[in-house]
Design brief:
Elements: H1 3-26, H2 29-35, H3 38-64, H4 71-95, H5 104-124
Length: 126
């Protein structure tokens, strides 16, 4: 994956975050309240947005610093984090299947690895 593809992926992810957030607020609100998961859904959307912006920043850095090798790993960590962390919370919120919450921390770990990778690569970069 190159910097251009990461930026494109950030654009798609951002559009999905807006769409999912709006659908949750308008189309799913009664279900989320019934399941007691409105705040859980909001958390999923927030982290989806935060890490979409991080993904965009990684893509921009990849374009600005073409020899930066670590940006691909950081980007994949953010993508996996969005899919696992936010995805599991989205599903938990609408289905009420509580065991999905057990996989959410794996997404959080992917986010952490992505941020650590950015830090490490910035230290290593000359």
């Amino acid at each position: 994956m190159n910097a251009k593809k990461i930026i494109q992926l950030a654009g798609i992810s951002g559009a999905l975050a807006v769409g999912i957030g709006a659908f949750g607020a308008h189309g799913l609100e009664s279900l989320l309240i019934q399941n007691g998961r409105l705040e859980t859904f909001q958390t999923a959307v927030q982290y989806h947005f935060y890490h979409t912006l991080a993904l965009l920043g990684i893509g921009i850095l990849g374009k600005a610093i073409p020899n930066w090798k670590g940006f691909v790993f950081s980007a994949w960590c953010m993508v996996l984090g969005i899919l696992i962390f936010s995805g599991s919370l989205y599903l938990l919120s609408v289905t009420g299947i509580t065991w999905l919450g057990a996989i959410t921390p794996a997404g959080g770990l992917a986010f952490i690895l992505g941020w650590i990778s950015i830090t490490y690569q910035s230290i290593k970069q000359r």
